[in-house]
Amino acid sequence: MKSFFGISLALVVTIFITAGCATTQNLTSSITSKVGSITSNVDDKLYSQVPEDERHGISKAESELKAFDEKLKLAALKNELAGAQKEYYKLQADLVEKDYKAASLNLDIAKVEAIDRAGLGDKAKNIKNIANLKTKKHTTEGDRIKVEARITIAERKIRELTEQVKQQDDVVSNLPTRGNDSQGEDSRSPTGEDEKSDETDGEYETPEDN
User: Fold this and answer.
1) Which one, 2, 14, 44, 173, has the greatest CB density within 10 A?
2) What average pLDDT does the structure give for the chain?
3) What is the largest CA-CA distance in the chain?
4) Hey, which residues does 194 pair with through a beta bridge?
5) Cβ-count burial of 175 within 10 angstroms (0-12 exposed, 13-18 middle, 19+ buried)?
6) What are phi and psi of 199, to 5 degrees?
7) What is d(CA 185, CA 199) in angstroms, rounded to the nearest whole number?
8) Any residues with CB less than 8 A from the CB of 24 and at least 6 apart, and which?
């Protein structure tokens, strides 16, 4: 019987692992879809024809979008982790409930068996009652196996998500800040020339001063 329960647990775990992988893939697809829908308002064919010297602010905007894309991934992972933790504690409560039910059935079985041994009540009714109680107990044990499998999956998922959150948090932490934008195409003036600011008497010259 223990061997059967062990095999059943392994099968259920395998099924839930497959389902968990599908959920993670769906999350990634959802993020990609959201970002794509936000950034799909421009005709790429037309944009590809824009000269390099007319692409003012593009590099900075692309960097900012990439940064928020990484932050969006982190937020989604944290949200999924919170959901997995909530599900884990719910399953733990369900497991205790199954154990309580099994203990209650064990007590009922012991009482009816005691009644039967004492020669009390109807013999046939006692036997039938004991059989029904044991059937319920086996059903409860089967349900418990399923809950244990789901707990195993939840624990594994929490570990994986915790690691993913840590890795993604490192990615976000290493993103360049807005104040550290590199000087490149974004530092050019609308005319395509590099902006220069010569300090004179503590003040910066404006184009009108020239």
Assistant:
1) 14
2) 79
3) 116
4) 188
5) middle
6) -85, 125
7) 23
8) 80
Name the β-bridge partners of 199: 204
Report residue 194: phi and psi, to 5°: -70, 135
The span from the CA of 61 to the CA of 208, in Å, is 29
Q: What is each CA distance from 109 to 99, 118, 126, in whole angstroms?
A: 15, 14, 10
196: helix, coil or strand? coil
Helices (H), 55-183: 58-117, 123-173
The residue among 59 and 185 whose pLDDT is bigger is 59
Question: Residue 117 has which token pair?
Answer: 């041994």
Helix (H) or strand (E) run with residue 28 in it: helix 2-38
CA distances from 47 to 55, 150, 190 (A): 9, 50, 18
- pLDDT band (50, 70, 90) for residue 95: very high
CB neighbours of 187 closer than 8 A, spacing ≥ 6?
A: 194, 195
In which element (H, E) is residue 200 found?
Answer: strand 199-200
